Amino acid sequence: MKNILAVIPARAGSKRIPKKNIIPLAGKPMIAWTIEAALASGIFEDVLVSTDSEEIAALSRQLGAQAPFLRDPEDATDSAPIAIATFNAMLRMQEYKKKNYNIVVQLMPNCPTRTDNDITMALDNFNKTGTEFQVSVFKFGWMNPWWALMAGKDNGPPRPLFPRQIKMRSQDLEELYCPSGAVWIAKTGALEREKTFYSRNYKIFTLKWENAVDIDTADDFALAELILSVRAKNK
């Protein structure tokens, strides 16, 4: 396919897990899992790593991605919206390559368990639905958000987040989905207009939970490493 750009946002300033994007995970730097999946999908004209770190950029180039420039400082702060950073990276890539992209696919490197097949299926669904925005999700399973409790203040009793649903049987509750940064897709003109993937009419694409792990904590890291290690042994 033509005119489709993959953007892998890889900021250096992770607080909870320092150097999160490049630390070893199941035998590879974490970002390698996302770069390899993007390249193996075969659907992208270019795979761009958007980073403020020359160390990450150099590693990304070694792994086969493109990183011809560093991210603008204003797009690398803790408060910078990732959607805006992705769009700005796309604009710079268009200028650098002297061409335009019709679709941009944002692949977060802290979602290393997503596969190349997940990416191709997500794009196929995006094209079939004709939507302008699509966000990857997974369905909640054994953790039921409908029964969530908020800690009581001053050692008081916990308060249910959903007082009505907490009294209902699980089989009578609506299914809930959790967003995952694995594969987010947008038409570039729509992203320029909305400045977010969460437009009024965005669609979702469901992944298996084990392919949609977002690594933000040490526990997430351990889970992803277990999934990738078991997957490697079963090949």
Could you write a compact summary of the structure shown?
This is Acylneuraminate cytidylyltransferase. This protein is α/β, with parallel strands linked by helices.
Spell out the blueprint of helices and strands.
Layout: E1 4-9, E2 24-25, E3 28-29, H1 30-41, E4 46-50, H2 54-62, H3 82-97, E5 103-106, H4 116-129, E6 133-139, E7 149-150, E8 159-160, E9 177-179, E10 184-187, H5 188-194, E11 203-206, H6 218-233
Parallel strand pairs: 1-4, 1-5, 6-11
Antiparallel strand pairs: 2-3, 5-10, 6-9, 6-10, 7-8
Using brief descriptors, characterize the structure shown.
alpha/beta, single chain, seven-stranded mixed sheet, Spore Coat Polysaccharide Biosynthesis Protein SpsA, Chain A, two-stranded antiparallel sheet, 6 helices, 2 domains
Low-confidence parts lasting 5 or more residues at pLDDT below 50? Answer: none
- CATH level-four homologous superfamily name of the largest domain: Spore Coat Polysaccharide Biosynthesis Protein SpsA, Chain A
Compute the CA-based radius of gyration: 19 Å
Examine the coordinates and then state which fold CATH places here, giving the name of the CATH topology of the largest domain: Spore Coat Polysaccharide Biosynthesis Protein SpsA, Chain A
Task: Choose one word for the global shape.
Answer: globular
Query: What is the arithmetic mean of pLDDT?
Result: 94
- The H/E string reads EEEHEHHEHEEEEEHEH
CATH class of the largest domain, named Alpha Beta
Supply the helix-strand structural class: alpha/beta
Biggest pleated-sheet summary: 7 strands, mixed
> Percent of residues in helical segments?
25-40%
Topology, number of strands: 11
InterPro entries: CMP-NeuNAc_synthase, Cytidylyl_trans, Nucleotide-diphossugar_trans
Keywords: Nucleotidyltransferase, Transferase
GO molecular function: N-acylneuraminate cytidylyltransferase activity
Protein name: Acylneuraminate cytidylyltransferase
